[in-house]
Specification:
The complex is a heterodimer of chains A (264) and B (306). Chain A is mainly alpha-helical and 264 residues long. Chain A has 15 helices and no strands. Chain B is mostly helical and 306 residues long. Chain B is built from 13 helices and no strands. The N and C termini of chain B lie far apart (57 Å). Classes of the chains: A mainly alpha (264), B mainly alpha (306).
Chain lengths: 264, 306
């Protein structure tokens, strides 16, 4: 079993090894450890040439991920609270309205969204991407939050109301902290989805607009450097590094985030 | 100690305020609801309508009825894309669930190395399919790692242009998909296995049942819910494959590895046939929905039988 796992990781091993090699070595002996370490590959990848380098793309991806996740948490938690604490019938209708969005796939709607955002001048902007992803993943966020809120006893909020708190105060000070576990799940799951998403970002940022995000940058980079595997791998390594690092250091949380949604 | 009167007043206040509160809470759902309604519902309805037009993204679209779909059914490229998508998804579902199940069974009991192994197999799931596929593009390249390894162990005659050969290209995409997502299915099955009490299995072992027999007659039936979730999820995942195809072959060689998703992108944004591309998207959406629902019903039915 251990052998199989080791074998499973060969692609990652190759990634690092080839990224560190000077051009000739990469092709002649892919599996061997590098004889000379060439960090120039990473420099080239980071700055890119003409277009956007990995460095800038990484920042862009981080911005839209953080922005969208924050919006998803705030708007989603509020909406879910509104749905979960509602009278049964209305609450049920609202819940289905939100959750149907998970099943309805985005590929069908992407064209009208593209055109609408183009009209609004938001195409290719980071703000537009945040708006888009907040909308796309809202059903998921509300779905996760509502299930959790429904399982929370109402005593805490009721006690706060008796003490004269407004709904908002009760929510912010009492309910939201209690939602911490599911907030973690929403954050991890949505972050991963947005960070790795390619199709939507290709449509949104592709075509020569300058604000590229990581997946699109990698795609363009490979298109430019094609068979220079060492440089290409340096770029790929840069794009995978954040997730890989996060994974190695916080596996438990990540896995819990992923599977937390399973149970819920 | 609050007096009886104040408690009663408090309760009364709760009753009336409750209704006001609930109505005010509706406001909180509005932003989220607006976003969902526009991004999901309105867009999908618009997209469905555009599928029946000849829109090119710039000039006004004209309604052309089913002409897009007629074109779809007669176009060789579209048919190839459809067949590829189905083959890829079917093979993917079978193998990824098989591996996931085997990994889960193997890791379910092991003590020391279990967490390391679990992390090792799950790692690819968190990575970007695009980035990961580029690594595999190198592995499959003619001067890449796989051929290099084959030559090194003396099987040089088996070397191929894996990605440039129409007969093998699709299967290379399949390999990458299975490699990346077996870990996810493993997680689904591990969660399911945890719900099965150990005593049942141990009792069967004591009664003399061999491992394989135990798995088949005891574990698998009890895992039925996990199988349902896992197979449906992997089916939807497989049918939507996009990143891997773009990275590994970009639909080549000569359109041999196109899938429904890549065709949607190509037709809409590269060729500018927004209406035609939307027809593809509509077809793909319907197909995925039918497959997902079909799988769910069949598997739920078998679940109940077991």
């Amino acid at each position: 079993m251990l052998l199989l796992a080791a074998g499973w990781w060969i692609p990652f091993y190759l990634l690092i090894v080839v990224a560190l090699k000077p051009p000739a070595e990469a092709i002649s002996s892919p599996f061997a450890l590098p004889q000379h370490i060439d960090l120039g590959n990473f420099a080239t990848a980071w700055q890119g040439s003409g277009g956007v380098g990995m460095g800038q793309a990484l920042v862009n991806s981080a911005v839209i991920t953080v922005g969208s996740v924050l919006a998803l948490i705030v708007i989603g938690a509020l909406a879910a609270y509104g749905v979960a604490r509602q009278e049964p019938r209305l609450g049920g209708v609202l819940y289905i309205a939100f959750v149907m969005g998970i099943i309805v796939p985005t590929q069908l709607g992407i064209v009208p969204i593209y055109v609408a955002l183009r009209h609004l001048g938001l195409l290719g902007t980071l703000a537009g991407a945040v708006l888009l992803y907040t909308g796309i993943l809202m059903p998921l966020s509300v779905f996760l939050y509502t299930g959790f809120v429904r399982s929370l006893p109402t005593e805490y909020e009721e006690a706060a109301f008796i003490d004269g708190a407004t709904q908002l105060q009760a929510f912010v000070r009492i309910v939201f902290p209690l939602l911490a576990p599911i907030t973690g799940t929403v954050a991890v799951l949505c972050s991963l989805i947005i960070w790795n998403d390619f199709f939507t970002q290709l449509v949104f940022f592709g075509g020569g607009i300058n604000n590229r995000t990581l997946p699109v940058a990698v795609y363009d980079f490979v298109g430019q450097y094609e068979t220079q595997w060492n440089v290409v791998f340096a770029a790929v390594a840069i794009s995978l590094a954040p997730v890989l690092a996060f994974y190695l250091f916080a596996q438990r949380r990540l896995i819990r985030g992923f599977t937390g949604g399973l149970r819920g | 100690m609050p007096s009886l009167l104040s408690v009663v007043l408090g309760l009364l206040r709760l009753r009336t305020v409750g209704r006001h509160r609930r109505r005010a809470l509706l406001l909180w759902t509005v932003p989220g609801l607006l976003l969902v309604l526009s991004v999901h519902y309105a867009a999908v309805i618009a997209g469905t309508w555009y599928a029946f037009t000849d829109w090119n993204g710039i000039s006004t679209p004209h309604f052309i009825g089913l002409r897009n779909f007629q074109q779809l059914f007669h176009d060789q490229g579209a048919r190839t894309a459809f067949v590829n998508t189905v083959i890829l998804a079917a093979a993917f579902v079978v193998l990824v669930n098989l591996f996931g199940l085997i990994f889960a069974l193997a890791l379910h009991r092991g003590v020391k190395t279990r967490n390391v192994l679990r992390s090792a197999f799950f790692a690819p799931v968190a990575m970007s399919p695009l980035a990961v596929s580029y690594i595999w593009q190198f592995i499959f390249a003619y001067d890449g790692a796989l051929n290099g390894a084959l030559r090194a162990i003396g099987l040089g005659s088996l070397r191929r242009a894996w990605l440039a050969d129409p007969s093998t290209a699709l299967w290379m995409i399949f390999v990458v998909m299975v490699w990346q997502f077996s870990g996810l299915m493993m997680m689904f099955y591990l969660a399911g296995l945890q719900g099965i009490p150990d005593e049942l299995d141990e009792a069967a072992a004591v009664d003399g049942a061999g491992t394989l027999a135990r798995v088949r007659t005891l574990t698998l039936p009890l895992l039925a819910p996990s199988v349902t979730v896992s197979m449906t999820f992997s089916a939807v995942l497989g049918l939507r494959v996009f990143d891997q195809v773009v990275a590994l072959t970009n639909g080549g060689p000569a359109g041999a590895t196109e899938t429904l998703a890549t065709q949607v992108y190509e037709q809409t944004w590269i060729f500018g046939h927004f209406g035609y591309g939307d027809a593809f998207a509509l077809l793909m959406t319907l197909f995925v929905a039918i497959v997902a629902l079909g799988q769910l019903t069949i598997l739920r039915y078998r679940e109940r039988q077991l």
